[in-house]
Amino acid sequence: MRIEVQCFATLASHTPQGGSMDVVEGTTIEKLIEMLNIDKNEVRLVFVNGKNQADWSFRIHPGDRIGIFPPVGGG
């Protein structure tokens, strides 16, 4: 199934080419992050279709738009 994925800030290099990728049905957010070769400690927020999704066991659906954000620092 096809999903859209956008990684932001320091994780931007992990965004799939073209901003989309195929995953098997039942893929969780946690598995997606592994597939993108992102260390889980580098992820602060994950949005699914514009809503914060804190449950890493959430199963992704066809056409979902995923946004992955690192911790943000500043001052």
UniProtKB/TrEMBL annotation:
Gene3D superfamilies: 3.10.20.30. It comes from Desulfoplanes formicivorans. This is Thiamine biosynthesis protein ThiS. Signal peptide: none annotated.
